[in-house]
């Protein structure tokens, strides 16, 4: 899709969302109704603007949570509030509760709360969604109805007095006449059945039973006007004696707006439930739902004695598509692949996306290897047909691993693990094929475990060392800085390149420890060089999203700099475009903290991800690093040359510095200089080299 069309569609979508948000806020303001959401795991809440207004709190001054709500409830009502909350979490139905609160300014207010719990797949309540309405006026009217007859008459609320036994109207105020379209004279000839079409004698008997116990009751009904139109109403009913006749007074409120809000909440609940169990990109069942269906299939197969096969599918070389063409192209490939997989399967089979380019399939009632082979080959053939995305025609193959229930395993965990092992065997055998699990494949899985353990040992024994790749100003051929890159100095195998261990370190979470080692070694080394009178320029360190997500990362970073007497102006942190866009809000906050400390921020591998320019402008960026995938074939590849020029132009328009990675030839260097990118990193000048070689270069530079 062309960028201008994409931008136009994005603007339309944003305007539509803003319009809906504005309508929602107007509904809340008109009905004096606020909405809220409570995360029952973290106890934190989200309040609408109207909710803040109801409680008298200033938005942004406090962090709403469940305890804040209870702090507003008067002591007499706290126990009932907690009991009602417990009931809502047990029933799962919409629960209504009325109580008195004290606003932040000391004033009291009566509120009506409606809430409903949301449960995860295990039945555990995880969220509570609801509304809060200020009903202080209604309660006041109920309390002082005898003393304030004139106010009742001209109240905007509908007020009725009805004969307790015959249900005939004895009194109606102006609000009731205006709402239903009858005159007072006409009203006195009607019963409540004439204006409440859904009311039955059974409901009346239930209300009377409640009135006999407490003297008051709450009811929700549908009013029918004289012209036949209908609306939702909420009724507070109290018993009284009216002119010597047993009666009850009804305070009705038109809650059509509230009902609209409730419908929106129901729709949101439905969407949240769906999102919790389905992949947002493809719409397929996600890992959570897949595991549940796998467990159910195992139970059913144990009862019936039928076999089934579990397929673990991985798209071959999918990362190259993301890296070279961008994540938006990769997403389209995943969507098309999921559609093809669905067409290749039977209705009774289960297809799920576990994440990334990994899919799983439960093939039910598979009697033998031949049946599984036929079904799997059909899947492989469907995937490898050409996929057209924008101007690209892509050829994607897949590797599939197969495990059998109950032959290979009788539990879901082992079935998935064995199918995954078989999938790696298919990749080792050349891809675009499938493999059945066998005991020999356990050896392959064991080797991955051995590698992970070796990495742990390497971390403990400080086997990881830092190499440095210089960054050069191509005009005057001077060193401006260098990027720190990790190498594994194995005691027997020698230097192990990162491609052999980084992926396993990331999967196992050990990458955080390795990043910590690199940061400490590099900062110490740079500080020493500066103390020796050398000028290594700026140190570029790669920053992962996992590091950014750590609450104390910025503090630890600054503490480390202090320990090594490392100055902020010596440091540049590189974060990849894809990582930033995976959680842009968090990225903006954390990167601003880093930038405020005087540390430069660079976007690494720029052009390979799916950036939002709106977010890009908000990031505290100092530099763009043009990914080597675009540099590799310039100036001969017109498409790469055009992309590189566009990135340089974008960087200049945003007043950002530019660095080109992976420069290996004189032609590439000259192309970059000609188009305004003067800072270069790549084999043309130097491979990544150890600290002692860098030191010799720096000393030689000083001598010159």
Task: Give an overview of the whole structure.
Strand 23, helix 24 and strand 24 form a beta-alpha-beta unit. The chain folds into four domains: 109 residues, PAS domain (Beta-Lactamase, 2-Layer Sandwich); 120 residues, PAS domain (Beta-Lactamase), CATH 3.30.450.20; 159 residues, 2-Layer Sandwich (Alpha-Beta Plaits), CATH 3.30.70; 254 residues, EAL domain (TIM Barrel). The protein has an eight-stranded mixed barrel. The chain has 704 residues and is α+β, with helices and mostly antiparallel strands. It contains 28 helices and 27 strands.
Summarize, please.
By secondary structure, the chain is α+β, with helices and mostly antiparallel strands. The protein is elongated. The relative contact order is 0.05.
User: What is the strand tally?
Assistant: 27
Largest β-sheet summary: 8 strands, mixed, barrel
CATH architecture of the largest domain: Alpha-Beta Barrel
CATH class category name of the largest domain? Alpha Beta
Strand order of the largest sheet: 18-19-21-22-23-24-25-26
Q: At the fourth CATH level, what is the homologous superfamily of the largest domain?
A: EAL domain
What Rg, in angstroms, do the CA atoms define? Answer: 34 Å
């Amino acid at each position: 899709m062309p960028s201008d069309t994409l931008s136009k569609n994005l603007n339309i979508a944003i305007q539509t969302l803003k319009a809906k948000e504005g309508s929602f806020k107007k509904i809340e303001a008109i009905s004096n109704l606020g909405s809220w959401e409570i995360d029952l795991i973290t106890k934190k809440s989200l309040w609408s603007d109207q909710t803040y207004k109801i409680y008298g709190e200033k938005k942004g001054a406090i962090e709403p949570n469940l305890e804040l709500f209870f702090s507003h409830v008067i002591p007499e009502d706290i126990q009932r509030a907690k009991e009602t909350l417990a009931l809502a979490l047990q029933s799962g139905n919409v629960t209504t509760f009325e109580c008195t609160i004290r606003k932040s300014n000391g004033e009291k207010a009566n509120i009506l709360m409606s809430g409903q719990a949301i449960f995860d797949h295990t039945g555990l309540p995880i969220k509570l969604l609801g509304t809060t309405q200020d009903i202080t006026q209604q309660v006041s009217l109920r309390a002082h109805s005898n003393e304030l007859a004139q106010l009742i008459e001209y109240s905007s609320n509908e007020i009725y007095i009805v004969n307790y036994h015959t249900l005939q109207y004895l009194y109606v105020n102006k609000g009731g006449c205006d709402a239903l379209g009858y005159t007072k004279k006409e009203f006195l000839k009607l019963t409540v059945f004439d204006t409440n079409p859904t009311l039955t004698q059974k409901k009346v008997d239930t209300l009377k039973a409640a009135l006999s116990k407490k003297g008051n009751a709450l009811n929700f009904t549908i009013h029918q006007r004289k012209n036949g139109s209908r609306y939702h109403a909420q009724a507070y009913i109290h018993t009284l004696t009216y002119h010597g006749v047993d009666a009850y007074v009804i305070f009705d409120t038109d809650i059509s707006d509230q009902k609209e809000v409730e419908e929106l909440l129901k729709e949101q609940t439905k969407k949240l439930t769906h999102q919790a169990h389905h992949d947002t990109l493809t719409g397929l069942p996600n890992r959570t739902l897949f595991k549940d269906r796998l467990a159910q299939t195992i139970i059913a197969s144990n009862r019936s004695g039928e076999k089934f096969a579990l397929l673990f599918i991985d798209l071959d070389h999918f990362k190259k598509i993301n890296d070279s063409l961008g994540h938006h192209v990769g997403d389209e490939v995943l969507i098309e692949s999921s559609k093809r997989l669905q067409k290749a399967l039977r209705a009774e089979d289960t297809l799920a996306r576990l994440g990334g380019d990994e899919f799983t399939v439960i093939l039910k009632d598979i009697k033998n290897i031949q049946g599984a082979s036929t079904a799997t080959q059909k899947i492989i053939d469907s995937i490898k047909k050409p996929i057209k995305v924008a101007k690209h025609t892509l050829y994607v193959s897949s590797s599939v691993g197969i495990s059998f229930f109950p032959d290979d395993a009788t539990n879901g965990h082992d079935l998935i693990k064995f199918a995954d092992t078989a999938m790696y065997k298919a990749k080792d055998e050349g891809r675009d094929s499938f493999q059945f699990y066998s005991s020999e494949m356990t050896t392959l899985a064991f080797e991955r475990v051995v590698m992970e353990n070796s990495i742990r040992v390497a971390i403990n024994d400080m086997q990881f060392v830092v190499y440095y790749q210089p960054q050069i100003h191509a005009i005057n051929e001077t060193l401006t800085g260098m990027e720190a890159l990790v190498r594994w100095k194995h005691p027997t195998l020698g230097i192990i390149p990162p491609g052999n261990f980084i992926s396993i370190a990331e999967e196992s979470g050990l990458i955080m420890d390795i990043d910590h080692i690199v940061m400490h070694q590099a900062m110490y080394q740079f500080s020493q060089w500066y103390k020796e009178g050398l000028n290594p320029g700026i140190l570029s360190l790669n920053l992962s999203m996992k590091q950014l997500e750590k609450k104390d990362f910025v503090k630890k970073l600054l503490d480390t700099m202090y320990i090594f007497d490392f100055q902020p102006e010596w440091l540049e942190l590189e974060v990849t475009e894809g990582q930033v866009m995976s959680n842009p809000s968090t990225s903006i906050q954390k990167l601003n903290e880093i930038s405020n400390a005087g540390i430069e921020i660079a976007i690494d591998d720029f052009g390979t991800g799916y950036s939002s320019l709106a977010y890009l402008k908000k990031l505290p960026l100092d530099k763009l690093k043009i990914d080597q995938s675009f540099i590799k074939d310039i100036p001969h590849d017109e498409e790469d040359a055009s992309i590189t020029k566009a990135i340089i132009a974008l960087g200049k328009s945003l007043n950002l510095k530019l660095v080109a990675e992976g420069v290996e030839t004189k032609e590439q260097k000259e192309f970059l200089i000609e188009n305004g990118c003067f800072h270069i990193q790549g084999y043309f000048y130097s491979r990544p080299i150890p600290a002692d070689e860098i030191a010799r270069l720096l000393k030689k530079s000083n001598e010159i």
